[in-house]
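for the recovery benchmark. tokens below, seq after
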């Protein structure tokens, strides 16, 4: 979808003020008509304002609850680039509205929405610097992102972070929009965390290194109550990774990413072998575990992903995030190390 189509889609999914006022006016007219019919019954008349109030409160509560899941931010739509309106609605139903602000003298962090699957979570946020500051670098990130289950720091589950700056249409003001990506071993949907970021950094155009431009700490308790959009496929088949025995346990697929979980007693040997390849060809280990995704229309897609190896548990988790969302229902099979695994709905 182009940005023009996404703008139209966003308008279609979002009720405007006129629609809201019409709904409210209809409620009032309906209540007034019922009042006229029931005037001869004193008890009903006495309770009518209370009933109307309860109806309105119920409507407002339902609207707020629906908004927490149905209102996918326009910036998220442009980042995800859904293929069609049906997929956009599907993603909207899984998104969770946060709208939480954390501020100090150096700036305000607004955490807006979250969406994710079994192993990848995206958080949409805005950062606003003090007036007079211009945030127009090509790239930004926070130096120290941190997310844990409890204040003591136990249950650290996150294994990778990333930041992407979005085009907000105003490159020379004091505000930027960011997507924070979090890679985890398991889904974090529905959980509450201690969340914090430190030191906004910008990329230096000359050195290509990130440097701190706004120091500071922004932290809060954060609930990520998005809906997991992934489907889990149990595989449990033997495979061979660079000559070493392994078992492909599961494949998890969503419109956002695909994750493979592999078990092996030879992970250290596999890891050392990829390091030797890296020295020869100059690639990191993620480039040594590619997958091919085959689709119903006969096309295919070759992907490299991020790798996490747990030598103690003997488990390797490989996550491949898509540039734009895909139609996961069109996937027919996944090829991993020359072995094809059919994907059936």
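predicted aa per position
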């Amino acid at each position: 979808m182009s940005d023009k189509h996404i703008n139209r889609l966003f308008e279609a999914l979002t009720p405007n003020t006129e629609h809201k006022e019409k709904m409210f006016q209809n409620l009032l007219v309906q209540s007034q008509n019922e009042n006229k019919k029931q005037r001869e019954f004193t008890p009903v008349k006495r309770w009518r304002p209370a009933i109307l109030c309860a109806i309105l409160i119920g409507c407002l509560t339902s609207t707020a609850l629906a908004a927490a899941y149905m209102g996918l931010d326009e910036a998220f739509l442009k980042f995800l680039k859904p293929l069609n309106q049906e997929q956009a609605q599907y993603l909207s139903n899984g998104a969770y509205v946060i709208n939480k602000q954390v501020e100090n003298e150096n700036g305000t962090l607004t955490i807006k929405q979250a969406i994710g699957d079994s192993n990848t979570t995206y958080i949409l946020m805005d950062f606003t610097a003090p007036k007079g500051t211009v945030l127009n670098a090509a790239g930004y990130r926070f130096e120290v992102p941190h997310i844990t289950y409890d204040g003591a720091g136990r249950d650290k589950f996150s294994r990778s972070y990333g930041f992407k700056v979005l085009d907000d249409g105003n490159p020379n003001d004091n505000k930027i929009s960011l997507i924070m990506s979090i890679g985890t071993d398991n889904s974090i949907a529905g959980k509450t965390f201690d969340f914090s970021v430190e030191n906004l950094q910008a990329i230096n155009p000359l050195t290509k290194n990130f440097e701190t431009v706004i120091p500071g700490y922004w932290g809060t308790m954060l609930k990520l109550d998005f809906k997991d959009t992934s489907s889990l496929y149990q595989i449990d088949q033997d495979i061979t990774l660079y000559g070493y025995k392994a078992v492909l346990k599961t494949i998890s697929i969503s419109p956002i990413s695909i994750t493979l979980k592999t078990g092996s007693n030879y992970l250290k040997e596999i890891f050392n072998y990829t390091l030797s390849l890296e020295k020869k060809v100059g690639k990191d280990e993620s480039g040594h575990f590619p997958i091919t995704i085959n689709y119903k229309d006969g096309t295919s897609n070759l992907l490299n992903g991020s790798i996490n190896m747990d030598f103690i548990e003997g488990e390797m988790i490989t996550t491949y995030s898509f540039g734009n969302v895909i139609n996961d229902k069109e996937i027919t099979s996944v090829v991993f190390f020359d072995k094809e695994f059919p994907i059936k709905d």
